[in-house]
């Protein structure tokens, strides 16, 4: 028998406090502290999400100061000097979990300096289609990469706050996220869309946020299989489950019974139904106590500490932002050794995006850096070499830009996307239809009276929906464009690239954005291409370091960019029902026989690397393989190598991807240096989900492990023979 928990432990204190609460006090913990109408006015008129955290569980009589929620995938969204890091998809391109853990810790510290202690910085929704508007908020298309980066961020956040992992699960379309029903098999669910969430849970994440969408016909916030059977029972999650904001709960009683613990940010749906359900016995007191215990335990486990405002944007955090921006830059092409740019006296910097702060979308992850903090590409180059004659042209007139390029030693064209083309789609036309499917909020019932309002609610909501549907998001307007179905640059930017490249053979194209950008109309006409992403406040300095050769580029693609959009899975942003299989990204391209323009895991360097002495050892007691490989920097400068390990399973029992990522490691090596890298590969990563057994099953036969520089590279291979085995839950 285990020893009882000490009286000072968060669990023990939470249980003692729970025992002292009345039913009404318990119910009060299950919703955010903000009244519905006050909160809606706050959001509409005061830019509330950038001014204060959203509170839950504040109870001074119980000695509780509350969970204080703030968003933050690229940094704390509250105004007041917080550091803006590169967006998560850029950090995914670094393939550097150790750095991501440090970034998570920095974000948590800055959140605490604002009075927040609960941070939604971990978005691990799998990027099924790279036109998803919120591609920039996640880490990529592969569950192993997502899991490694998301769990690292979770560990960092948990040192000073409660980490919130989102959106559970299958959130991968933005325009119809409030309506869409994602249909898929349990095998696809467990193999592709859940492993990275489990990695974050096992890393200690304290909370999980549900998605708005349905999965196999059931809203995620009331999905018992996801929230209770899988998350809490199978994975042993001891934290709490929170709804996505405002429209995340449809049926309050069904949601709590399914495993949802907290509605945020307002007292809304729960307020009008849980008390009655508890009195009637349709909400079991055991489930209520479980939810409250989870919330109390999380709040009481928050570490104390002094978090002064001076933490925000401090030199150490800005250095992290600079390092992340540098490591995320992907060198996609470098013909004839055009890069690094050296021996220059003049440089043409062309494009509107070269001279503006381009940090990402303006949805819930929008950050508000202080004026003058953001280092643009133009400013970064100017600061890096004051002697270099820089001449800027905004690219509005391609002929004038080409003329400038011809007069300079080299040209850098900065093009791509901004919040007008992609991002979280926030628009009244999307929200209003949801109202028609929801019960009227309790404050409205109290105001108008239940008998008068209930018969009128649905017609009123549908009328509101029909009116607001007429207002559509438009580029350059007030609302973010959301998902993209057109993945090329706009024609004006493509024309600009071609004009400048024709005028100066030393033309480098720098791409900004979060999702895929197809380049077939121009990539063969330019010598060099760099992917800068949305690089955060220090991105301009990072770009200058790479362009001028101070640092070798080391980013690797976190998703595959095809040569044609036809090679991608179907994607309809307005869809109300979609069917997902296991074929997307590099797995789909290989199955169909299409080479990518830029494969998953691809990225060039100014140096070169050699892999050798590949060996694998079976470790049955840990249910894993230990793979070891020697890596040598055989090139002329210090650089980082990302060693990627892919499995090629037997595929005799069920159809499997011909190749799938099972592990990776990042090494920084000086010229001529050699290092031995060992990677543990869990058997479960080699297994498939057997629906009949409700478990992962290791397929018998020859499993080939390939160490390769990207998903399509031949690489260095070793075979291992494995026996059939049914693995744990």
- Find the count of extended strands (DSSP E, 2+ residues): 28
Major pleated sheet: 6 strands, mixed
The whole-number mean of residue pLDDT values reads 93
Class inferred from helices and paired strands: alpha/beta
Measure the end-to-end span: 24 Å
- Compute the CA-based radius of gyration: 26 Å
Low-confidence stretches: 467-479
Biggest β-sheet: strands ordered side by side in the sheet: 2-3-4-5-7-10
Question: Helix segment count?
Answer: 22
> How does the overall form come out from the CA principal axes?
globular
Query: Beta-sheet strand percentage?
Result: 15-25%
What proportion of the residues is helical, as a percent range?
25-40%
Concise description?
It contains 22 helices and 28 strands.
Descriptive overview:
- The protein is an alpha/beta fold and 729 residues long.
- It is 31% helix and 20% strand.
- The strands form 7 sheets. Strands 2-3-4-5-7-10 form a 6-stranded mixed beta sheet. The chain has a 6-stranded mixed beta sheet with strand order 12-17-16-15-13-14, sandwiched between helices.
- A hairpin with a 4-residue loop joins strand 19 and strand 20 (624-633).
- It is globular, with a radius of gyration of 26 Å.
- Mean pLDDT is 93; it is low at 467-479.
List the main descriptive attributes of the protein structure presented here.
single chain; 729 residues; alpha/beta; 6-stranded mixed sheet; 28 strands; 31% helix
């Amino acid at each position: 028998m285990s020893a009882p928990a000490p009286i000072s432990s968060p669990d023990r204190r939470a249980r003692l406090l729970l025992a002292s609460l009345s039913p009404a006090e318990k119910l009060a913990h299950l919703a955010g502290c903000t009244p519905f109408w006050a909160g809606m006015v706050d959001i509409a008129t005061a830019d509330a999400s950038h001014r204060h955290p959203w509170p839950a569980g504040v109870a001074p009589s119980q000695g509780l100061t509350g969970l204080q929620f703030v968003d933050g995938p690229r940094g704390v969204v509250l105004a007041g000097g917080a550091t803006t890091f590169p967006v998560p998809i850029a950090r995914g391109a670094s393939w550097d979990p150790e750095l991501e853990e440090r970034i998570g810790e920095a974000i948590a510290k800055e959140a605490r300096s604002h009075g927040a202690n609960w941070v939604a910085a971990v978005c691990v929704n799998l990027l099924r289609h790279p036109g998803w508007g919120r591609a920039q908020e996640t880490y990529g298309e592969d569950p192993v990469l997502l899991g490694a980066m998301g769990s690292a961020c979770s560990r960092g956040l948990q040192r000073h706050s409660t980490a919130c992992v989102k959106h559970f699960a299958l959130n991968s379309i933005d325009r119809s996220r409030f309506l869409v029903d994602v249909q898929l098999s349990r095998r696809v669910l467990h193999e592709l869309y859940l492993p990275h969430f489990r990695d974050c849970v096992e890393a200690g994440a304290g909370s999980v946020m549900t998605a708005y969408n349905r999965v196999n016909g059931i809203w995620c916030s009331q999905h018992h299989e996801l929230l209770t059977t899988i998350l809490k029972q199978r994975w042993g999650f001891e934290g709490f489950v929170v709804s996505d904001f405002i429209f995340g709960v449809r049926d309050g009683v069904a949601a709590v019974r399914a495993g949802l613990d907290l509605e945020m940010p307002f007292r809304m749906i729960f307020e009008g139904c849980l008390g009655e359900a508890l009195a009637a016995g349709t909400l079991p007191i055991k489930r209520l106590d479980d939810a409250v215990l989870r919330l109390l335990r999380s709040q009481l486990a928050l570490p104390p500490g002094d978090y002064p405002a001076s933490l925000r944007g401090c030199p150490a955090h800005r250095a992290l932002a600079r390092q992340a921006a540098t490591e995320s830059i992907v060198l996609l092409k470098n013909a004839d050794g055009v890069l690094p740019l050296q021996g220059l006296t003049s440089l043409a910097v062309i494009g509107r995006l070269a001279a503006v702060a381009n940090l990402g979308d303006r949805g819930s992850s929008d950050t508000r850096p202080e004026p003058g903090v953001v280092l643009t590409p133009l400013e970064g180059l100017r600061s890096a070499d004051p002697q270099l004659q820089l001449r800027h042209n905004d690219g509005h007139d391609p002929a004038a830009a080409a003329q400038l390029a011809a007069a300079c030693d080299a040209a850098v064209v900065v093009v791509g996307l901004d919040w007008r083309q992609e991002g979280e789609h926030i628009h009244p036309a999307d929200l209003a239809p949801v109202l028609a499917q929801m019960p009227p909020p309790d404050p409205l019932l109290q105001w108008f009276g239940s008998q008068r309002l209930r018969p009128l609610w649905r017609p009123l909501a549908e009328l509101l929906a029909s009116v607001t549907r007429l207002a559509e998001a438009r580029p350059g307007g007030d609302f973010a464009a959301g998902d993209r179905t057109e993945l090329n640059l706009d024609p004006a930017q493509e024309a600009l690239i071609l004009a400048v490249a024709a005028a100066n053979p030393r033309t480098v194209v720098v791409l900004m954005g979060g999702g895929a950008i197809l380049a077939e109309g121009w990539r063969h006409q330019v010598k060099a291409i760099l992917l800068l992403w949305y690089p955060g406040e220090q991105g301009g300095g990072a770009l200058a370091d790479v362009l001028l050769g101070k640092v070798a580029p080391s980013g690797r693609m976190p998703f595959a960019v095809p040569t044609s959009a036809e090679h991608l899975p179907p994607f309809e942003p307005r869809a109300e029902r979609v069917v997902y299989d296991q074929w997307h990204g590099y797995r789909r391209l290989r199955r169909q026989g299409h080479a990518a323009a830029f494969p998953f895991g691809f990225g060039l360097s100014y140096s070169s690397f050699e892999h050798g002495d590949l060996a694998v050892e079976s470790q049955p007691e840990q249910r894993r393989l230990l793979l070891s490989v020697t890596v040598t920097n055989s090139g002329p400068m210090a650089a980082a190598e990302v060693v990627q390990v892919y499995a090629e399973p037997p595929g005799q029992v069920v159809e499997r991807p011909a190749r799938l990522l099972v592990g990776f490691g990042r090494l920084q090596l000086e010229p001529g240096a050699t290092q031995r890298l060992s990677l543990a590969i869990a058997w479960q990563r080699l297994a498939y989900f057997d629906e009949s057994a409700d478990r992962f099953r290791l397929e018998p036969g020859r499993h080939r492990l390939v160490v390769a520089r990207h998903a399509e590279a031949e690489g260095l291979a070793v075979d291992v023979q494995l026996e059939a085995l049914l693995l744990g839950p």
